[in-house]
Amino acid sequence: MDSDKRWYSLRVISGQEKKIKEKIELEVNRSGWSDVITQILVPTEKVYKIRNGKKVIIERNILPGYILVEALLGKFSGEMIQSISNLTNVIGFLGKNNPIPMQQAEANRMLGKVDASSEAGEMMIEPYLEGETVKIIDGPFNDFVGDIKEVNEEKKKLKVIVKIFGRGTEVELNFMQVEKQS
Q: Is the pTM of the predicted complex or chain greater than 0.85?
């Protein structure tokens, strides 16, 4: 039964993906198509930025301007395609009135990216790089400026070389204790 389902790409106005997804879900439920259209996804990943020393988590679209629709192959046709395509801010399916299903490998790769990002937690939107200059905003070295020697993404730690009395001293700090110098 699962092998009869295929993913279709629906082009929409960028920035409106979540609203359009809700409209499609309402249309599917109202029209009783939930046995044919099984899933509607807006591919996103969680990323974070550090603003004013605080970790701010945001969801970022992996594919801006696209929604993925899973439907049964052969039963997804005519009226359903027209109804969804005619919704406000929907541009249309790839393949217009005869939507082309995504190749299974491509769908798995996209869904794997979606699944992996929800499991992996968050990823930093602007990662720290070795050699970059940062200002320490918390802890005993508050207001010191130093260069990053090493980045440990898993532990969210940095090794920073800070000049104290004219000598470079290595200090280990977490991501929340520093901010990028602009």
A: no
